[in-house]
Specification:
N-(1-d-carboxylethyl)-l-norvaline Dehydrogenase, domain 2; eight-stranded mixed beta sheet; 14 helices; binds 1,4-dihydronicotinamide adenine dinucleotide; binds 1,3-dihydroxyacetonephosphate
Amino acid sequence: MAKIAVLGAGGWGTALASMLHQHARSVVLWARRPEFTQELLNLRENRDYLPGVPLPDDLPITSDLNQALDHVTLALVVVPSVGVQDLLEQLPRETPIVLCAKGLGAGGERLSQVALQMGFKTLGVLSGPNHAEEVSRGLPAATVVASEDEDFAVLAQSFLMTPSFRVYTSTDLVGVELGGVLKNVIAVAAGLVDGLKLGDNAKSALMTRALKEMQRYLSAQGADEDTVFGLSGLGDLIATCTSQHSRNRAAGEKLAQGQDPRQGGKAIEGIRSTYLLHEWAQTHHADLPIVEVVYQILENRITFSQGISILMGRKARSE
Ligand SMILES: NC(=O)C1=CN([C@@H]2O[C@H](COP(=O)(O)OP(=O)(O)OC[C@H]3O[C@@H](n4cnc5c(N)ncnc54)[C@H](O)[C@@H]3O)[C@@H](O)[C@H]2O)C=CC1
Ligand SMILES: O=C(CO)COP(=O)(O)O
């Protein structure tokens, strides 16, 4: 039977491992820290990252990477983007990998580009509206696995699809990967809208215009025009901007309440990506107005009301 190694025992890695195991896949969950692995084994619950979800008694969990990778068919790389390169350094380059983080490399490059440059050849990404809190409880969800190698995408689909987790394939690696990056930034903005109580009209306008901004950026990176309207774009934008579970949306709400969401200790992909996308827009003289306003607010360069005025006062144009 194919063996799947889930590398990273945060919320998403734990949810994927648990869900796949319950559907009779051969899965091992790898956590970096031995003491945390022991806690997972003792409690059969990930209290730090996925509290309240019991883990199957016979789900193998280890902090020994060699053991996790022994005879592996597919490795899911499920750590935050800031740790992806570090983890990839430790993997044999022939390991078939699916990258699950929704963020960018340290220089603003796509994580699949980082992996390719490191010598990985068989790779894909997984991205879609998939909150760990729901997938782990067996609630129905759909997602996309993308790879330029269609055969690999189909193979990964066959390993990951279950009756509660519907997996589509795509060969638009760029589009699928970047949809998940951009929507996190927009979710921070949506949290600001919620926290400032700007109303449903404002939130709808933000999300709809954000889709255009996402499309511009994705096209500039070589994505197919339509990918942004799929699960990894519009689908994840809706889920993240409206969800009670979203860490990125919650970060925007905290900002609106005068708190700094960066103090929590957990990485917020949307904040990190805001800085990297701002850099890219500056270098390429690109127009990413929502990203830019979030950046200026994070940097305390503008007030919330100035941010609203900037977006509302842009040049009049046709839709
Ligand atoms: N939580 C969710 O519902 C979903 C999350 N994602 C994405 O998956 C990625 C991971 O997210 P979460 O699981 O929510 O994060 P999390 O914050 O719940 O957990 C992160 C885990 O990664 C570990 N870690 C951090 N750096 C590491 C490194 N260098 N090597 C090994 N382990 C390391 C941490 O110890 C922790 O166990 C993010 O990019 C996120 O955007 C994607 C879909 C759903
Ligand atoms: O990517 C996600 C759902 O698809 C998770 O969103 P958050 O990282 O904002 O919690």
